[in-house]
Amino acid sequence: MLEIIASPISFFILLSLFFVGAIGSLFFYKNNNQANAWSSFFVISGSLVGLVFSIVNILTKNSLLFGLKTSFFSFFTISFHIDLLSSFFVFVISLLALFCSIYGIGYVRHYYKKYNIGVLGFFYNLFIGSLILVVTSSNGILFLIFWEIMSISSYFLVVYDNHDDDNVKAGLLYLVMTYIGTSFIILAFLLLYKYIGSFDFLVIKDNIALIPASIKNIVFVSAFIGFGLKAGIIPLHIWLPVAHPAAPSHVSALMSGIMIKSGIYMMIRLFLDILQPVPFWWGLMVLVVGSISALLGVLYALTEHDIKRLLAYHSIENIGIILLGLGSALTFYSLNLPALALLGLIAALFHTLNHAIFKALLFLSAGSVINEVHTRNMEEYGGLIKYMPQTALFFLIGSVAISALPPFNGFFSEWLTYQALFQGIAQMSFVTQWIFILATGSLVFTGGLALACFVKAFGVTFLARPRSKKVTCAKESALSMRLGMGGLALLTLLFGVFSGYIISIINTVSQSLGIFKNSSSAINISSSQSMSVSNGFSSISGPLIFVLFVVTIFLVVFIFKKIINRKQKECTTNTWDCGTNFTPRAEITATGFSRSIILIFKGLLKPTIQHNIEYYDDQNRYLPKSRTVTLNIGNVYHTYLYQPLHIVINKLSVKAKTIQNGNIDLYISYILVALMLALLVIL
Amino acid sequence: MSIFILVIQLIFIPAFSPLCVGIIRKIKAKLQNRQGANIFQPYRDIWKLLHKDEVLSRDASWIFRFTPYIVFAVTLVVGMSIPLFVPHVFGFMTSDILFIVYTLAIGTFFMALAGMDTGSAFGGFGSSREMTISALAEGGFIFSLLTMALIVGSSNLFDITSFTRSINSQYFLPMILAFCGFFIVLLAETTRFPFDNPATHLELTMIHEAMILEYSGKRLALMEWAASNKLLIFIALGANLSFPFGFPMNVGFVAIALGIFYFLMKMFLFCVIIAVLESSIAKFRFFRLPDLLLISFIFNVVAIGLIYSIK
């Protein structure tokens, strides 16, 4: 039985489910309900198959290599290689797709009669199918085809809500940035092809010694830019906070939860598997980029009051944290410390999994709120905990997990990342050590600021009194949406409490990589689920923490409520209003909450403030009619990076115009000259 | 025996923390030429509040109602996980520095949410200020504990304490720097001067008091008690990690009794320092506080650099 599940057959069943789901929902484009049912059924069953397939593969340590032998071109073969790393990513994709699709059943109902559900189902199925193909294909060209399908299907999902012009604009920016990234990836693959003569990942890996060091560095830089752009590292992130919020919420959850991780997957695949051995500075570069992305990501998140953009910026932050783990793994491995390198890689993979879960949870619960209140602006929320109590609880669990508070899963993966960085400080020599110290500093402040940001996000959205009329009409979301969120919320807790078990599985996944074949990791997991790192430098136990919390809270509630304070009454009145007429305008706003942090970091964030006063009489300005204050954050990347680039490209195009004068005869002579030159070069 | 020690660890912090506040208040009163209340007054206050009826805001949700229990429980969990006067006798898996820091952050997180929950302007601004300060204080907090952990080679607080007892003097300078950094964080996290004034309810400046403004009765008692627990936790960390004189090396009634005696002496000393500090300096302007917290962070970064230049 297990052999059948872990065979290529079930992989093709899995793909065909998504394929049938995609094509079938197009047939039902006229009937919303049927299209929804059809696409959801196939996505959910496909994800279930994917879950079983990947879990069996990981637990039996099974690695699959298969493909079509017939090929028309020598460089293009349809071949798949599903090792444990791929299986791990298939697992994460299927897990998220499962819960997001359950959520989607109820969520897409509000698109009925406005948009075509069949088209949504088509691209949704295609998107998830291509995600799975991206992490399993083993040929550069094949990979690029799936990568493009993934990008294009997600583009169509981003612009799905096309009545809003902003979404269409967001889609365009996303498309342009994606192609810039893809061109860098193509460059990297072509360079590898030039020296090795194959696009097949396994062939490249076996012949990697043929590549000169300088070319390898160029491959690294272009792959890091290409995949980093998809992952959303700063300063290549500008598409992410625009595109993710535009998509339907369950798609945003998938994009933030897993699509950006496909960049991380390829970085691990290339840097830790294919391009070995790597030079020392690669790891340091990844570390530096990771620190910058983490810290700036959370700072930009603090400035946001659009709830989905806020979450999108947190994705950038968490990609930074994952890169800190990956960067330390690279550094340690190039210095021949495989045990610590494994620690870093496990931290990165565990955080990838955890971030996927809690970020999806947050996006889904934000989606439920938007669905009810019909705006993404947090300043118009408030008091939703009374109208949507369960959604509020799910968002709270997500916030606690992403702020790395124990005993939820975020704490344990950040803990591992910290341990990798601590070991870097303890064992590296001078310059490297300081990079590790700064990376730790960035992670520390990131943690603190993320906590502040989620107090703001949860408090402004769900607590106090409603700030707009729309909130008072909000109702708890549909059952399927609550099921999707509830499942993820439960997972954040379970993956925290049983983190020891999860980490031991991720340990086997990481050890299956060629370079770690004969090394054991610096993590020890005892039978009671507690882990200790680097010969007892640090140790922690998930179940013990959980039990300790539950028992203590129970004890405190019991003693104070039932023993000491039994007879006393609780009466309910208004909040103290200082004798004024109390309105929701007295409450703190999202902008006000983070204003002090923004002012403290004004060197980085460049906040701007603009006063506009309109007077009754412009000549003698005594009576102001209205005053407006506009607060903004300077767009540094636009002004200092993209704007100058744009100007340079424009100038070059104008220069190119002088030889492009529209005269056909001239063009033919260009062709002739080019042909002669090409002939000369070849001969 | 280990059950006995566990129970003492659990009870010790809440049992002595009001005394700590009482002592500080008494010394401050004396320095201001006042008689001051008895040092046991905080116990009476808590007892009185526990037996009063409660007024709850109409706008408050379960977050507001449940927060005092979480905040208090968090201080208990941390209190029993840190070295007080018992050496490392059983494998505490919860004495990791990061666990302590992030568990205390749970309390801050929920307290800030409770501040926003009633919809009062005071609560909201209190939360905003508190989160600003605690976000920036986290750098100094983790790094000061990390400095000690790197000197010792273990991030377990009990290991750090028993190691620093027998430390040789070469690490004196980084230890002192780490302690200075830690002390700044202590003042910030326990809402003391120059960060916050625990004795005032002035709208423009209050931070911690603003968040708990809407509480009354038993929930107020729990919040106040948890705040004093947190003070004693920080004092215990500062005292035992940096100055582990008299910290017992073995388990026995005499050793533990002696340990308790030394600990209370150190606690008294810290209270005196805090009280004198509060009587002699003024509160800082809010936007000068980040400078102070950054100094704490830099102290520790320098300390870590020093450790490796010594090695």
**Major beta sheet of chain A, specifics?**
3 strands, antiparallel
Classification by helices and strands of chain A: mainly alpha
User: What value does the Rg of chain A take, in angstroms?
Assistant: 27 Å
Question: Spans of chain A of 5+ residues with little confidence (pLDDT < 50)?
Answer: none
Q: How many domains comprise the coordinates of chain B?
A: 1
Strand content of chain A: 5-15%
Based on CA atoms alone, the radius of gyration of chain B comes out at: 19 Å
Protein name (chain A): Hydrogenase 4 subunit B
Organism (chain A): Candidatus Magasanikbacteria bacterium CG10_big_fil_rev_8_21_14_0_10_36_16
Pfam families (chain A): Proton_antipo_M
Membrane topology (chain A): Multi-pass membrane protein
Characterise this structure.
The complex is a heterodimer of chains A (683) and B (311). Chain A is mainly alpha-helical. Chain A is built from 26 helices and 8 strands. In chain A, strands 3-4-5 form a 3-stranded antiparallel β-sheet. In chain A, strands 1-2 form a two-stranded antiparallel ribbon. In chain A, strands 7-8 form a two-stranded antiparallel ribbon. In chain A, a hairpin with a 4-residue loop joins strand 4 and strand 5. In chain A, helix 4 packs parallel to helix 14. The model of chain A has no long low-confidence stretch (mean pLDDT 90). Chain B has helices at 2-31, 41-50, 62-81, 97-117, 121-152, 157-165, 172-189, 208-211, 217-242, 253-280, 289-310, and one strand at residues 54-57. In chain B, helix 1 runs parallel beside helix 10 (253-280), helix 2 (41-50) packs antiparallel against helix 9 (217-242) and helix 5 (121-152) packs antiparallel against helix 7 (172-189). At the A-B interface, helix 16, helix 17, helix 18, strand 5 and helix 22 of A face strand 1, helix 3, helix 4, helix 5 and helix 9 of B. Chain A: One of its GO terms (molecular function) is NADH dehydrogenase (ubiquinone) activity. Chain A: Keywords: Cell membrane, Membrane, Oxidoreductase, Transmembrane, Transmembrane helix. Chain A: The chain crosses the membrane at residues 9-29, 35-56, 88-108, 115-135, 141-160, 172-196, 208-229, 250-268, 280-303, 315-335, 341-370, 391-411, 431-464, 485-506, 540-560, 664-682. Chain A: Pfam families: Proton_antipo_M.
